[in-house]
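User: tokens in, sequence out, please.
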């Protein structure tokens, strides 16, 4: 007698490979030198609490001048003025661009 036993179990239920995608940092990253609240005057480098309003140049108040100091740590930033704007870089807090500030 030849009897076929159909009960052969085989591993059919393999765990479907769940490819773990690297988490992409989405959303606006606004942790730059000009992130609010500012702890230092970005035009004077003076602590915000100690800075008098007169210390800020008038042109700077109008947004015509790029910030010279990091608002987070008060370091002097490397400022580059371009025909279409400017960018300022803090060695610790990164770069801020005039287009990011919304000055038009
Ligand atoms: Zn900084």
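Assistant: Sequence out:
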């Amino acid at each position: 007698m030849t009897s076929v036993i159909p009960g052969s179990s085989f591993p059919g239920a393999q765990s479907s490979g769940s490819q773990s995608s690297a988490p992409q940092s989405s959303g606006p990253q606004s942790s730059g030198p000009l992130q609010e609240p500012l702890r230092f005057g970005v035009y004077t480098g003076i602590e915000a609490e100690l800075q008098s309003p007169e210390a800020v140049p008038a042109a700077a108040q109008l947004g015509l001048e790029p910030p010279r100091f990091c608002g987070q740590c008060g370091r002097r930033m490397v400022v580059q003025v371009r025909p279409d704007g400017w960018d300022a870089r803090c060695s610790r807090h990164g770069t801020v661009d005039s287009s990011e500030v919304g000055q038009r």
